[in-house]
Amino acid sequence: MKLVVKLIIISTLLLITKVNGQEFQGEATYKSKRKIDIKLDSTQVNSEMHQQMMEMLKKQFEKTYILSFNKEESIYKEEESLAPPQPQGGFVVMVSSGGSDLLYKNIKEKRYTNQNESFSKLFLIKDDLKDIEWNLESETKNIGEYTCFKATTTREVEDVESGISFNGDKDLSTADKEPKMKLITITAWYTPQIPVSAGPGNYHGLPGLILEVNDGSETVICSKIVINPKNATDISEPVKGKEIMQDAYDQIMEKKLKEMEERTRVNTNGRDGERVEIRIGG
């Protein structure tokens, strides 16, 4: 079956002409959605407050991204939009979606540069692109006018349940425990009709542009593609920011988030009223 898939891909690639690193460029628009299902104790959070939280969280994860790409490089950036309004009612929502301000990937050189502003500091995170062990499958479907093939891979991630606390209280029984890990399956749909190994976010390495990715909780799907746009984006590596490796950046962010949580807890001590804090990891 894999041989059939490879033959179809090769045949499709042979039909594509005038595509090379210098002449060919494209722009793809992606939209993201995430499943949100948080059950709260009705004795502590009323139905109106719960609904307000769900609507706000849904908007937090409904984002639009633009991927500018050629045969060897790509730039992935969130489309600028107004921040969703914070809800009333005394609860705080901290969302970590794992996103980036501007992600540059060089497929040929197998490296990336992530220009990210965090806690009022501009970072330039540079590291190697990790190979993704994709399993090419025979299943196909159409996304817009493009025929897409299915590919899957697995990845071990931290099993983070939404952390919910009332009035700043936390479950101390799990505070110092090692996080549980779980294996998730990631499904991607790519089209050999656009013969580049690019894709949204950190996804890449397939014999065609990735138009959809689903990891079980979040779906990112392409809604528009323009080949050789008139006002093409300059695909160049960002240079501004403090250069740092990915592991070092992750350690800094973890420390900053803990400090922010502690300040929030201290600032709410002694206050009247109910406070709900939700933290969702990406």
Structure description:
With 282 residues, the chain is an alpha+beta fold. The protein has one domain (2-280). The chain is built from three helices and 15 strands. It has helices spanning 2-15, 47-61, 246-268, and strands at 26-34, 63-69, 73-78, 91-95, 102-106, 111-118, 121-128, 135-143, 146-158, 163-166, 181-191, 209-214, 218-227, 242-244, 276-280. The strands form two sheets. Strands 8-9-11-12-13-1-2-3-5-6-7-14 form a twelve-stranded mixed sheet. A three-stranded mixed sheet has the order 4-15-10, with helices on one face. Strand 8 (135-143) and strand 9 form a beta hairpin. The radius of gyration is 21 Å and the shape is globular. Mean pLDDT is 78; it is low at 13-22, 94-98, 162-170 and 272-277.
Features:
single chain; 18% helix; alpha+beta; twelve-stranded mixed beta sheet; 3 helices
Radius of gyration: 21 Å
Major sheet characteristics: 12 strands, mixed
Helix content: 10-25%
Order of helix and strand elements from N to C terminus: HEHEEEEEEEEEEEEEHE
Adjacency order of strands in the biggest sheet: 8-9-11-12-13-1-2-3-5-6-7-14
Number of strands: 15
Strand content: 35-45%
Point out poorly predicted stretches: 13-22, 94-98, 162-170, 272-277
Kindly, what is the distance between the CA atoms of the first and last residues, rounded to a whole number of angstroms? 34 Å
| Count of distinct structural domains | 1
Count every helix, treating DSSP H or I runs of 4 or more residues as helices: 3
Structural class of the helices, strands and pairings?
alpha+beta
Which overall shape is indicated by the principal axes computed on the Cα atoms? globular
Mean pLDDT: 78
